[in-house]
Specification:
With about 350 residues, the protein is α/β, with parallel strands linked by helices. It is built from twelve helices and twelve strands. It has a six-stranded parallel beta sheet, with helices on both faces. A six-stranded parallel beta sheet has the order 8-9-7-10-11-12, sandwiched between helices. The longest helix is centred in the middle third of the chain and has 19 residues.
């Protein structure tokens, strides 16, 4: 995507999905954003709650309001409204059209992270033109002239390159990548995260590309270019690659690019112990592989797994304790539950990597 220079106060639109993992863009922006100042969430099902309570179990002072007019009357008019949820096929649901038209009619720009380019929908174009709004469709590839082929210059990079991969999509790889970046920097190990999804861009990361909006022939080159430019300009000790999907997810197998084209020196693997089927493919005859089997596959691609991060969705504290004991018996790798524990073990794993 040719990045527009946008920033300012924004609300997030989640269409009743705020408290589900389909709102992972919203969740990421509620945790952190340098690009946008998030001042509210518009969600009719979670209205009246604090967004932090709804997402992280602790208040963050960001209100959830049922509709945009009520929000403006009670607080202020934002500059942007960000579509913060995922949908089946990346298409904007028809029932959400009136909300988008209402927001545009109020002179608020719309930032869209869905696959569907809603700036091309005629009824939105008309309202946007009438009120001087802009619809930013973020999930677009860069212009052809700005795309890069892989050249091999990734081997010139002297920074350690860490890929945060997962056994499935929607496991928190981006959040873990950001937490690792912060923890390394706090430990005086200069680090930069390279984003590969729309939420990373929305959060304000300076280097990266939109993986699933880039033509396949250019993915390896765009990854290499982002890593190289970040290394050249920022001189970090560690480069962190935000992974996408999973190596064996049938609907979007992904991960080998980070190991092979990105020349990863090490991998941190994110996993959900309770998730047995790939997200959205519960009826398809494929199961998420055992974590040690996945570690073996990653290492066959050419990078050592240096740590395991666990997503605790659907797990009680007792489940967490039992799983930790079980996995510690099966591997000598450090294990962290990122939302509840520090990233110290992962920092140490990166530090030890040759």
């Amino acid at each position: 995507m040719d990045q527009p220079h946008i920033s300012g106060k924004a609300v997030i639109l989640t269409n009743g999905k705020l408290e589900t993992n389909n709102a992972k863009t919203a969740h990421g922006l509620l945790r952190f954003s340098k690009r946008f100042d998030i001042i509210g969430v518009i969600d009719h099902l979670s209205a009246g709650k604090d967004a932090g309570d709804a997402v992280q179990g602790k208040p963050n002072g960001i209100p959830v309001i049922a509709n945009i007019n009520t929000f403006i009357n009670k607080y202020e008019k934002p500059k942007y409204a960000i579509i913060g949820m995922a949908t089946k096929g990346g298409v904007l649901p028809k029932e959400f059209y009136p909300t988008i038209k209402e927001i545009l009619s109020l002179g608020i720009h719309v930032v869209n992270g869905l696959h569907e380019p809603i700036s091309e929908i005629e009824e939105f174009k008309e309202v946007a033109y009438e009120h001087g709004d802009i619809i930013y469709d973020i999930r677009k590839s860069r212009s052809f002239k700005d795309l890069h082929f892989w050249t091999g210059k990734v081997k010139e990079i002297t920074s350690k390159k860490i890929a945060v991969l997962g056994t499935d999509c929607a496991l928190g790889k981006r959040t873990t990548s950001k937490m690792l970046e912060d923890a390394l920097n706090k430990s005086s190990i200069k680090s930069e995260m390279v984003y590969t999804g729309q939420t990373g861009w929305m959060q304000g990361a300076n280097y990266g590309f939109l993986f699933d909006a880039t033509a396949n022939d250019f993915i390896s080159g765009e990854l290499e270019h982002a890593l190289y430019e970040c290394w050249k300009n920022e001189n970090p000790e560690v480069l962190i690659m935000e992974g996408q999907s999973g190596l064996r997810n049938p609907s979007g197998p992904c991960g080998s690019e980070f190991i092979v084209s990105g020349a990863a020196d090490g991998v941190i693997l994110q996993h959900s112990p309770v998730r047995k089927k790939f997200k959205g493919l519960e009826d398809y005859p494929a199961e998420i592989p055992d974590i040690l089997n996945e570690i073996n596959l990653i290492e066959q691609f050419g990078a050592p797994v240096i740590g395991i991060c666990i997503n605790t969705e659907g797990m009680s504290q007792e489940d967490v304790n039992i799983y930790r004991q079980e996995i510690e018996k099966r591997t000598d790798l450090p294990i962290t539950f990122p939302f509840f524990e520090s990233m110290d073990l992962m920092v140490e794993a990166v530090r030890k990597l040759n």
